[in-house]
Design brief:
With 298 residues, the chain is of the alpha/beta class. The protein is built from twelve helices and ten strands. Strands 3-2-1-4-5-10-9-6-7-8 form a ten-stranded mixed sheet, with helices on both faces. Helix 8 links the parallel strand 6 and strand 7. Helix 5 runs parallel beside helix 7. The two termini are 27 Å apart.
């Protein structure tokens, strides 16, 4: 491992890492990440990459490598100084990596407590802002990734936890409860079961009641460990009929954060499969965190 790579990993390990390119929307992600890091008593690292994200040929022609690095270094220095003024107790670092944003952000997910990207913008997270970088990082992530939307609503609402009957998503559940504890907010746990709606519209009412009972039991099982570990966190658990994505997006309007679990290979099991999780993370009305099953959340 090179000295530079070793230092970067030290700047990522057990910290909140946020993609930054100087654009207004990446600044929004930085501000959210700073608040998150301070609340969770973790350091913050601002990450820029010298290789631009998806850009037009005209933009590439206007920026040679030297100019790009100089501009990024200047933006990073000013951003760090600004954060140190706003959050004097927060340990803030910056990294300018000679890599693509997708590769470096994905690499950071192995070491960081949380990697944060925006969902609109330019340069480092331009693709994230238009979907491609965030989508790629979510698919490759080995740790939690947060997507902060353009029009993020930083409400004091509940932590919305999406629960899948096919998996307990233990890491995501614990992360949702821990964030609820820190924010003194309730957890709203939703298990979305389309079969109930289909059965109740037909003549199989008893079958619908059976499916509903199974879903409620699965939801209780998924929440049992976290509820025991965080008895002070209020929990509102609901089984609702329908399709996952519309429900998650609608309820995210009133939430302060959405938390979804995913398997290590980047795909959510069962109803909340990979494409739904990525779309929910990028279309939610509040910051959304996708957590691999094996991610450390302590």
């Amino acid at each position: 491992m090179s000295a530079d790579a070793s230092q970067r990993r030290a700047d990522y390990r057990d910290r909140v890492v946020v993609g930054f390119d100087g654009s207004p929307m990446s600044r929004l992600a930085v501000n959210w990440a700073a608040s998150y890091a301070q609340l969770s008593h973790q350091g913050l690292t601002l990450l820029s990459a010298t290789e631009p994200g998806p850009m037009s040929l005209q933009q590439v022609a206007l920026l040679n490598r030297f100019d790009r690095e100089a501009a990024l270094n200047d933006r990073l220095a000013r951003a760090v100084k600004h954060l140190q003024v706003r959050h004097p107790l927060l340990d803030v670092r910056s990294v300018l990596a000679e890599a693509s944003p997708i590769d470096e952000l994905s690499e950071a997910t192995e070491w960081a407590r949380l990697v944060v990207t925006g969902t609109r913008g330019l340069g480092l997270v331009r693709g994230a802002m238009f979907g491609s970088v965030t989508d790629s990082v979510l698919a490759r992530a080995r740790g939690p990734v947060a997507a902060v939307p353009t029009a993020a609503r930083f409400a004091n609402g509940p932590i919305l936890l999406g629960v899948d009957r096919a998996s307990t998503a233990r890491a995501a559940t614990l992360m949702a409860f821990e964030n609820a504890r820190r924010r003194q907010a309730p957890v709203l746990a939703l298990l979305i079961e389309p079969n109930i709606w289909d059965l109740r519209r037909g003549a199989e009412w008893e079958s619908a009641e059976h499916v509903l009972g199974q879903a409620k039991a699965a939801l209780a099982d998924a929440l049992r460990e976290a509820s025991s570990r965080y008895p002070m966190v209020p929990v509102d658990s609901r089984v609702v009929p329908g399709r996952p994505l519309p429900w998650l997006l609608q309820v995210s309007r009133m939430a302060s954060m959405v938390v979804l679990g995913t398997r290590r290979n980047g795909r959510l099991p069962g109803l909340l499969h990979g494409s739904v999780s990525r779309r929910a993370a990028q279309q939610a009305h509040c910051p959304a965190v996708v957590v691999p099953d094996l991610a450390l959340t302590a």
